[in-house]
Design a protein that fits this description.
Elements (H helix, E strand, L loop, with lengths): L4 E3 L6 H10 L9 H12 L10 E2 H7 L9 H18 L3 H19 L6
Antiparallel strand pairs: 1-2
Length: 118
């Protein structure tokens, strides 16, 4: 399977809805900044996937091959809060933003410990 883009910022529809539900972010059916941050968060936990927030076929397949129907409630909370912090800092303070990306990666790694990739 190639790396065609499936979802990107501004996209709308049922695929976005499905993605948002799986990642535990607010379901708006619009691929917004919060969704992109959650995707980046997820990508950062994967080997050989660049965390750019674009859902290509590789990212899509990784997200939807995780055991279990959904992330736990606590995992969703951690992803949602870390994504919000990173987005808020993005335009405010470059150094703090870079540090928050590292923190976000650690949170993702922590959450990832309870997720089994097939």
């Amino acid at each position: 399977m190639n790396d065609e883009i499936i979802l990107n910022l501004g996209d709308r529809g049922s695929l976005v809805n499905k993605l948002q539900e799986k990642l535990g972010v607010e379901i708006t059916t619009i691929y917004d900044n919060m969704t992109m941050a959650a995707v980046k968060n997820f990508q950062a936990t994967q080997i050989h996937v660049y965390p750019n927030g674009i859902v290509d076929s590789i990212t899509w397949n990784l997200i939807f091959t995780i055991d279990g129907e959904k992330f736990s409630k606590r995992q969703k909370e951690l992803l949602r809060h870390s994504s919000k912090v990173v987005e808020l800092l993005k335009d405010e303070d470059k150094e703090l933003y870079e540090m928050s990306l590292l923190l976000q990666k650690y949170i993702s790694d922590y959450v990832g410990e309870t997720i089994i990739i097939k």
